[in-house]
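lol ok so funny story. i was supposed to be doing the assay writeup but got distracted and ended up predicting the structure for this chain instead. priorities right. anyway since i did it might as well share w the group, maybe its usefull for someone
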Amino acid sequence: MNSTITNLFNIKYPIVQAGMIWASGWKLASAVSNAGGLGLIGAGSMYPQVLKEHLIKCKAATNKPFGVNVPMLYPNLEEIMQIIIDQGVNIVFTSAGNPATWTARLKAHGITVVHVVSSVKFALKAEAAGVDAIVAEGFEAGGHNGRDETTTFTLIPMVKEQIKIPLIAAGGIATGRGMLAAMALGADGVQIGSRFVASNEASSHPKFKQKVVEAKDGDTILTLKELAPVRLLKNSFYDQIAALYQQHPTPEELKALLGRARAKKGMFEGDLDEGELEIGQVAGLIHSIKPAAEILNEIYHEYLEVKKSLCEE
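and the output, tada:
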C-alpha cells in the first residue's frame, strides 16, 4: 500500500506502533518494523544509557525503519536527543512539549520528525515548527492525554481541515475497522498503542497484559488532570485517587499520593493494586495476547476486507 505515510517512513503499511512507556522496548519495535509497520522505542521510561542499549539491539534485530518516541517532559532530554543523533536514528516522534525546541536540530541531522498533539491549536503550532507529520490523539488513548477531552472521531477531521502535512490518527484504534474509520475521517495512517501492549514482545508485565485482556468498557478513566491527565485502569490505586478527590485536594496532595514510579510498579513490575495501569478505552476490544506481527497483519487485512465490503454495498 502506497500512501504519504508509507512513503514518508519507507514502510509497507501505514501503521505505527506507539512508543509507550514500559511496553515499547527494542523487541516490540523491531517486531513491528519487521512485519511492515513502523516500530517505536518508548524513551519515556528509559535512562539515557538504557535507551542506547535498546537502540543498538533494535538495529541488530531489524534492517527496517524504526523510530523513537520522546516525551519532552522527562529529564535528561539533552542527553537522550544526543544519543538518538549519535546512534543514527532516522525517525523521532516528540510529545508533551514544544516542538519548536527540537525539530530544527533533529531535521538538521536528517531525522524525520513527527509531533503528537491533542488539539487543532497545537497541530498548527507543530506544523509551523517544521515537523514532517502530526499524530492527532483523541482522549480515548491510554497514558498521558489531552486536557480538552476531544475524541478521535471529532479531532481527526478538524485537524485535517487545518493542516497540509501528513496526519496520523491515534486514540481508540485497535482493529482494522478502527483503522478504516480513521482513514475515512482524513487520516493518512494510524498509530496504535494499547493493542500492542497485549503482544508477546511488549516489555510490559504479563500480569498487566492479562489485565488488559480482561478489561471491559468503562474499566478505564481519565484522571489527575491537575497534574498531567492520564488514562488508566481502575484499581486500588485509582480508588485512592477517587477518595482523595472527595476531599478537594491540592495539586501537591495529588503529587504526594502519586509518588514516584507508579507506572513502573504497575505496568513493568506487575503490581495490579498499587501501580498505575495506563491503557486506552479500546482495551475492551482486546481479547488475546499475540505476536506483534500477527496483530499487525490482522489489523491490516481486516481494514482491507471491510473497505472492500463497503465498496461492494
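The chain has a mean pLDDT of 94. The two ends are 23 Å apart (CA to CA).
back to the writeup now i swear
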